[in-house]
Amino acid sequence: NGTATDAVLLLLRLFCNILFSKLVHDSNPLSFWLCDWLTEVCDSPLVSNLPPSSFRSSSQLSSSHGPGFAKVNRREGAGGWSPLHSDRYQWLEVDLGRRTQITAVATQGRYGSSDWLMAYVLMFSDTGHNWRQHRQEDSIGAFPGNSNADSVVQYKFQQPVIARYLRLVPLDWNPSGRIGLRLEIYGCPYTSDVASFDGSSSMLYRLSPRPSRTARELISLKFKTLRNAGTLLHAEGQRDHSLTLALEKGKLLLSSGRQHLVSLGSLLDDQHWHHVKVERFSTHLNLTVDKNTQQVHIPAELSHWDIHQGNVTFSCAEPVSVAVTFTGSQSFLQLPGSTGWTLGVVSLELHFRTWNKAGLLLTFDLPQEEAVVWLYLNDARLCLQIHKAGRVLRELSTGSSLNDGQWHSVGLRSRQDHLTITVDKEEGSSAHTSISFPFVTGSHLFFGGCPAEGSGHECENPFKVFQGCMRLLTLDSQPVDLIKVQERLLGNYSHLQIDMCGIIDRCSPSHCEHGGRCSQSWSTFHCNCSNSGYKGATCHSSMYEQSCEAYKHKGNTSGHYYIDVDGSGPIKPQLIYCNMTEDSTWMVIQHNNTELTRVQPSPEGKQHSAHFDYSSEEEQLAAIISQSDHCEQELSYHCRKSRLLNTPEGSPFSWWVGGPGPGQVQTYWGGALPGSHQCACGLQDTCLDPKHYCNCDADHDQWANDSGLLTHKETLPVRSLVLGDVQRLGSEAAYRVGPLSCHGDKNFWNAAFFDKETSYLHFPTFHGELSADISFLFKTTASSGVFLENLGIKDFIRIELSSSTEVVFSFDVGNGPLEVRVEAGVPLNDNRWHSVRAERNVKEASLRVDELPAATQEAPADGHIHLQLNSQLFIGGTASRQKGFQGCIRSLQLNGITLDLEERAKITPGVRPGCPGHCSSYGSLCQNQGRCVERANGFTCDCGLSAYTGAFCHKEVSASFKSETSVSYIFKEPYELSRNDSALPSSIYSDMTLRGEKISLSFRTSQSPALLLYVSSFYREYLALLINKHGEDVQTTLRLLFFGKVKCLVFFLCFPPQCLLTKLLCVFSQIDQNAREEFNLTSDVEFNAIKSLVLGRVHESDDLDAELARLASLGFTGCLSAVHFNSISPLKAALLHPDSPVIITGPLAQSSCGSSSPANPYAAETTRSLSDQTGSVDPGQPLVNAIRSDSALIGGVIAVVIFITVSAMAIMARFIYRRKETYRNQEVKGVQPEDGPEFPYSSQADSQSAPSEHQKEYFI
């Protein structure tokens, strides 16, 4: 029955091969299903019936341990194969008699013994030479073996292998025994037609015309070659269009005419079969080489093909070329020198290929000269050096870029007194030198490296060892038989793979993402991420934040930033303006025309149309709109005898196109609702003509407008605009389409609160086979808990808080569990937000917590690389019921995709959507007395008590003053003063009595002396803040404000007719214009019943002495900024709060004069390209250059803090009653004024020689 079944299956397979082995065929689901089914049942045992002659081995322990006994579950002989020596140079080979499709391999130990394999590698060949190692996942070469001598361990290949010969090489075996093996191979016969091409021959295949074309056509073939260049296939289309598939430097190139379309594959000149498939669809081609596919668009003229290939011999020539692979630091090949070399005539040639820039190719001694010759690679060039007694006798170099993975030939020739080295023969280059001694070599040649010390051979290698392949070694034109070397019949070797070239192109396909450039050495690869906008070992992680909201919460202010909306996803970062306001954070996307544009009548009388190209790409626009809470765009139409929409029932004169992709026609206007056919005035019943729903539809011969905001995200952005009624006589119109503005980040604030250790959320399986990045924020009071876990059959991935100060990222991709740990050093369970970012790729795993240095763990060399998970993804808990997480998780993203925690939390017991309490983490961002205010999604800074404004209360409120400008802040008049009841105790006026003042401001002026601030009281007391003149040159005085010991400020606390004068010494070493200095004065005097605070000109100066009154009348010319008096910001109130008790006279307008950056963010900004984001530039830094002033008006920024502490104590009532008499007797004891014009104001206190008992002290 089994034989009959095998026969039927064989017939079906032959039928499938005959029916579906055409070069071109249609896609038939039934045919593919049939062939797939036949592939699935290709699992017949192939070894059990083979004769002993089909088995070969490197050696055998005895005749009863021969390779012919290595059959699973058989007991003949000694019960299996065992070699003479148990080392890694042994092998067992099976000849299946014909090319066979191999689907699985099974191993078993030697019967009745302690001999079995624990690990092995498999190699395949069509000829018994030029072996190819089979790899799992393109990297793992080792297969797991047995744990005892009896059990059978089977490994099924992910993809069938087609070969005639199989060779098994033991890697590890039972340490208590030796190598012992029984083997079975599973598969089925493989039949195909072959054709051999000699490089000058061709074959034409003309497709027969068909009555109907199909949507898909396919060309499929396999090829093998030792040549790295040549045309494989050429297809002619219509109108001289063609497609050519050709090998170039071992890669397959697809081109159309002279246009290069795509390149795929690498090292295809290895004399192994490679599968090529070209699929034509209606508009594009899919090119597949082995397992890698790329898509390319083609012209329509290539819908019909005539195919050319080369002159055919219907058999496949198999030239034998034995290569040897140098795998590592202990690899070397030792050969005896040629007998002809004793005459000084040397001829040596070899071919090599490698990815390394450096390595020893050959070394040998010159005994007669006591010298040594080294032939080596250095910086990808071929070099030769003759060394004697510590000095270099001769040195040559030639060639370049010899580490490109291609085969390169090297020739070394010496005759008489002439020495030559040559690279790639006539196509390459050579170097020559003369020598004054016979080039007579020693008895040994060492290739690739030297034996280990103590081996008895004198061999020295000061260079790196060679890692790569060599072949076609010839000495005196005689080829070296490397098979004899393998059989230990010639020379010696160590750690070589003979009869195979084990080179791997680790950059094809490239694991470098986002355009990162891949380079490689023999054992690893490197990704150059410069200019890509991404970082990491594989350029996987974005350098930039995903929204303006994220930049804001890092403390950044308004400016241009690169935004990567999908993080590590495929959408590229784009430069976007972020407008950080007190209430919202806006992303502003500009287009090519945001200005008010006048419509110019067309001479053809046609409609006017405008198209808008946005600074962001289509994918990013869609992502920004989708993830934002709110988007808006201004749409305005200014008209004079130019109708807009006509009537809701009639056809509109104008319309616009908006929405995702190409967009849809919209017939409503800014401020109205979609589908309403109205403008904003129509919804509000305020149109000029009640019969119409737009102001412009009134058709008046005067200017009107319909303006408003488009706020429905489904119709944004505006892509084009058509205006119809602009050609009539007298019609005039203008339009404006503003930038697209969006605020709110749904992803950034998406959060869930886990109130129990047993609560969790679950999501579909996480797919991050080759690259996986996970980022989130958390806050908790618990000391441990699992944030995230996803399991597979053996693989897993987990992130957890292992202790109150440590986060652990653990995973297993088949190489055993690995962990990456970050020890924070500070508690992470402080109920503040902390960020976690974990990444795992084929090169390394990394973990970063907050801004701490990232911890990394390199992936094992040639280890498993695919993360294979199949269970649900658990958030906040685990499938294994370990201790879950208790606290908040926010903004959880996996490979740039945000998981909607809030939606899932709404339907999950024990988990609540959202998580309040952000000020504990972000409150420090609020500056200058700004107060953090909680929001459901985030926080804001309340700047009500601050002299500053902006998102973080960081923007100075500034104004330019002219001499006539005056700003008066009026304090509330006490009720008792209005009755003139001065005998009331001072406690009645406690709310108007200041026991201390805190004054801060910034100024910029060239005026000196000048009055900066004046505070008056109802008791004719006042406080004045002045700039005192120093020297004759005003500009010099102000410049000294920054660089010298300057007497710069004079404070008067005046109780008429006497002023208490205090001189302040402003001692600066070197202070920039943003520095702040504080000065304190202490006194027991109260400042009672304050009346007003004046900036600029003081109009009511009757109570001042003549000099100060004159100065007050002059006003202030310059810039004042961030003025703060105790809890009052008079300048901010005047500029931003018109309902404040402020009286303004003269010109006053908000200005950027007090800031180092312009008020208009678009006024003076320069941006950098992605290539500029290198070095130490912080990706969070706004790409705006601040304006700095170099004018003669040198700015002085002084923050002055004055605290006047008054002790009323028991005599307060009497002090108030007799205040004038008391003030007359007060004197100041402090710093003695210097003589000179810098103190123009004097008082009686200045000239008194002896202090009285009533004198007060002021301390600076």
From TrEMBL:
Residues 1166-1176, 1241-1252 have a biased composition (Polar residues). The keyword Secreted does not apply. The chain crosses the membrane at residues 1192-1217. GO terms for cellular component: membrane. Residues 1-26 form the signal peptide. Residues 503-540, 916-954 form the EGF-like domain. InterPro entries: ConA-like_dom_sf, EGF, FA58C, Fibrinogen-like_C, Fibrinogen_a/b/g_C_dom, Galactose-bd-like_sf, Laminin_G, Neurexin-related_CASP. Residues 539-591 form the Fibrinogen C-terminal domain. Residues 42-188 form the F5/8 type C domain. Residues 1152-1177, 1227-1260 are annotated as: Disordered. Belongs to the neurexin family. This is Contactin associated protein like 3. It comes from Myripristis murdjan (pinecone soldierfish).
